[in-house]
Write a structure and sequence with these properties.
By secondary structure, this protein is of the alpha/beta class. The protein has 2 domains: about 150 residues, Quinone Oxidoreductase, Chain A, domain 1 (Alpha-Beta Complex), CATH 3.90.180.10; about 110 residues, NAD(P)-binding Rossmann-like Domain (Rossmann fold, 3-Layer(aba) Sandwich), CATH 3.40.50. About 25% of the residues lie in helices and about 30% in strands. It contains 8 helices and 14 strands. Strands 3, 4, 5, 6, 7, 13 and 14 form a 7-stranded mixed sheet that branches. A 5-stranded parallel sheet has the order 9-8-10-11-12, sandwiched between helices. A hairpin with a 6-residue loop joins strand 4 and strand 5. The two termini are about 15 Å apart. One of its GO terms (molecular function) is oxidoreductase activity. This is NADP-dependent oxidoreductase. InterPro entries: ADH-like_N (IPR013154), ER (IPR020843), GroES-like_sf (IPR011032), Lipid_raft_assoc_Zn_ADH (IPR052585), NAD(P)-bd_dom_sf (IPR036291).
Length: about 290
């Protein structure tokens, strides 16, 4: 194959919309892998990209193909041909989008797909689970310590809570109507920002730990000034095949669970983003090329 179908936009910001494009398939260089995409999950980050509320490490290249999460089959490159894999595209660095028939990525982004999950389920893991896993490592809690995770109905919050329980950490998951007592827990992980982020921060004891997955440029309240001996930290998920291997093992052991709300054809990517933008979705939206 030399070309592929993708869903892309020629500009970002107000009025930007995804449309079908035909782009070249990039053959893998040394240390890279070409993947035939079987499923690609839709994330809030994708909304931010199209809206122009996203920050890349390099100047944005157009057309923009969104998408952080892929599950698929290795077609060529530095991996076993025909292997089932999952990967984070690392879009902020690579600008490689998963809303495509093929992606070419560094081999270090990949892990073998979980044997117990289908393509659609497997595609929901990379970005959300990597964020959760890296957040827990930043929090560095011991078994028996207490952790508040707000937004536990979402993928990052749910994975974080499940992975924390597997580590022996005691997890509290307050909803919109409940607030933990002030200074009552060892640490908090914020995945929603705003007032609920402030409530999670207030729940942490003096000298405790607080991590947020919400960049301050995206949702105000995602980050705070250090106080009471607590130094707020932002987790920025980075592609990491070895870490993704650990996540796969957790999925195969039943320690983390996936939830899929709806699947869409690749050409329906704009509809999937609009549904996500509207809110109220319980579970991941996934594109199937």
């Amino acid at each position: 194959m030399t070309t592929m179908r993708v869903m892309a936009t020629d500009r970002v910001g107000p009025g930007a919309a995804l449309r079908p494009h035909t782009l070249p398939v990039r053959r893998p260089a040394d240390g890279e892998v070409l993947i035939k995409v079987m499923a690609a999950a839709v994330n809030q980050a994708d909304l931010g990209m199209v809206a122009g509320n996203y920050r890349w490490y390099d100047e944005l290249r157009l057309p923009l193909v969104p998408g952080y999460d892929v599950a698929g089959v290795v077609e060529a490159g530095d991996w076993e041909i025909g292997a089932a894999v999952i990967a984070s595209t690392g879009h902020s660095r690579t600008q490689v989008g998963g809303y495509a028939e093929y992606v070419t990525l560094p081999a270090g982004h990949l892990a073998a797909a979980p044997a117990n999950l289908d393509w659609v389920e497997a595609a929901t893991l990379p970005l959300a689970a990597l964020t959760a896993h890296q957040a827990l490592d930043l929090l560095d809690l011991d078994a028996g310590q207490t952790l508040v995770v707000n937004g536990a109905r979402g993928a990052v919050g749910r994975f974080a809570a499940e992975l924390a329980v597997a580590r022996g950490i005691s997890v509290l998951t307050p909803d919109r109507t409940t607030t933990p007592a002030p200074a009552s827990v060892d640490a908090a992980l914020d995945v929603v920002g705003g007032p609920r982020a402030r409530a999670a921060f207030a729940a942490v004891r003096d000298g405790g730990r607080y991590v947020t997955a919400v960049p301050e440029f995206w949702v105000p309240g995602g980050q705070f000034t250090a106080e009471r001996g607590i130094e707020p930290t932002i987790v920025r998920a980075e592609p990491d095949g070895r870490r993704l291997d650990e996540i796969v093992r957790a999925a195969e052991a039943g320690q983390i669970t996936t939830t899929v709300a709806k699947t869409f054809a690749l050409t329906e990517a704009a509809d999937a983003l609009e549904l996500l933008r509207a809110g109220g979705v319980r579970g991941k939206l996934v594109l199937v090329p």
